[in-house]
């Protein structure tokens, strides 16, 4: 079964850090672009970052550039999102997704990040 | 960044109705365009990719069309399980972007 499972979310104070993980199974992870998408409470979907199969290309939404880092470990079939200098506006459910050339075809269930004093 | 404007933001419809949702891009994009369905508390689910290709397991009452800057998702006969929020998304260029969503409610 093709599956993505996120972990690492939680409550953090403004200015703090969190590292999200996404474990993949059921497909050839090393041949797939991977993406993080977030959804603030009651809001729509927002793309956060993407990483190429071999990690050689990474892209970020402007609002997280310099604060978030996407990475992957193909030996562990995992993708990560290191989030530093967190702000209240980063509060959201964070989804990991497999990126095909034109769509996000497999999604995890999400992990919740809350940034609050 | 390519902006995607979805309309309407919400609609009320009855079971059996034909429903169309549109998405307008701020510039012409290629066929790298998709539609998703999201139910409360759940992850989004891919419905349509490459503008008009139906994802495996998605009922044939869902269809996608369009080109250039204007795209449409159509549900030919709305079913009870279709009441949800729908999002369009482009992968033509980074940053990837989503439309604001269309909430489909029961009339």
List the helices and strands and how they pair.
The complex is a heterodimer of chains A (117) and B (107).
Chain A: E1 3-7, E2 10-12, E3 18-25, E4 33-39, E5 45-51, E6 58-60, E7 68-73, E8 78-83, E9 92-99, E10 104-107, E11 111-115
Parallel strand pairs in A: 2-11
Antiparallel strand pairs in A: 1-3, 3-8, 4-5, 4-9, 5-6, 7-8, 9-10, 9-11
Chain B: E1 4-7, E2 10-13, E3 19-29, E4 33-38, E5 45-49, E6 53-54, E7 62-75, E8 85-90, E9 97-98, E10 102-106
Parallel strand pairs in B: 2-10
Antiparallel strand pairs in B: 1-3, 3-7, 4-5, 4-8, 5-6, 8-9, 8-10
Could you describe the 3D structure shown?
The complex is a heterodimer of chains A (117) and B (107). Chain A is an all-beta fold. Chain A has no helices and 11 strands. Chain A is globular. The relative contact order of chain A is 0.31. In chain B, strands 2, 4, 5, 6, 8, 9 and 10 form a 7-stranded mixed sheet that branches. In chain B, strands 1-3-7 form a 3-stranded antiparallel sheet, with no helix packed on it. In chain B, a hairpin with a 6-residue loop joins strand 8 (85-90) and strand 9. By secondary structure, chain B is mainly beta. The mean pLDDT of chain B is 97. Chain B has strands at 4-7, 10-13, 19-29, 33-38, 45-49, 53-54, 62-75, 85-90, 97-98, 102-106. The termini of chain B are far apart. At the A-B interface, strand 5 and strand 10 of A face strand 4, strand 5 and strand 9 of B.
Percentage beta strand of chain B: over 45%
Number of strands of chain B: 10
The helical percent of chain B reads: under 10%
Main structural class of chain A:
mainly beta
Largest sheet of chain B: 7 strands, mixed
Outline the biggest β-sheet of chain A: 7 strands, mixed
Gap between N and C termini of chain A, in Å?
40 Å
Question: What portion of the residues of chain A fall into strands of 2 or more residues?
Answer: over 45%
What is the gyration radius of chain A calculated from CA atoms?
13 Å
Mean pLDDT over the full residue set of chain A: 97
Give the tally of β-strands of chain A: 11
Shape of chain A: globular
Summarize model confidence as the mean pLDDT of chain B. 97
Poorly predicted regions of chain A: none
Major interchain interface with per-chain residue totals: A-B, 23 and 25 residues
**Terminal residue distance of chain B:** 36 Å
């Amino acid at each position: 079964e093709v599956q993505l499972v996120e972990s690492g979310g939680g409550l953090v104070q403004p200015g703090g850090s969190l590292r999200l993980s996404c474990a993949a199974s059921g497909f050839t992870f090393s041949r797939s672009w991977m993406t993080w998408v977030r959804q603030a409470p009651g809001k729509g979907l927002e793309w956060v970052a993407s990483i190429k199969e071999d990690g050689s290309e990474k892209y970020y939404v402007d609002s997280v550039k310099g604060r978030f880092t996407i990475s992957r470990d193909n030996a562990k079939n995992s993708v990560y999102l290191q989030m530093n200098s967190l702000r209240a506006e980063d509060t959201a459910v964070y989804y990991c997704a497999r990126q095909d050339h034109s769509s996000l075809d497999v999604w995890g269930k999400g992990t919740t990040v809350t940034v609050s004093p | 960044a390519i902006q995607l404007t979805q309309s309407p933001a919400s609609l009320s419809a009855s079971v059996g109705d034909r429903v169309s949702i549109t998405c307008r891009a701020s510039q012409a994009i290629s066929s790298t365009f998709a539609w998703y369905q999201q139910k409360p508390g759940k992850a989004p689910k891919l419905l349509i990719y490459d503008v008009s290709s139906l994802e495996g397991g998605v009922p044939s009452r869902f269809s996608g069309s369009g080109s250039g800057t204007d795209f449409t998702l159509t549900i030919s006969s709305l079913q009870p399980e279709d009441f949800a929020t729908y999002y369009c998304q482009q992968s033509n260029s980074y940053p990837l972007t989503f439309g604001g969503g269309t909430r489909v409610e029961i009339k």
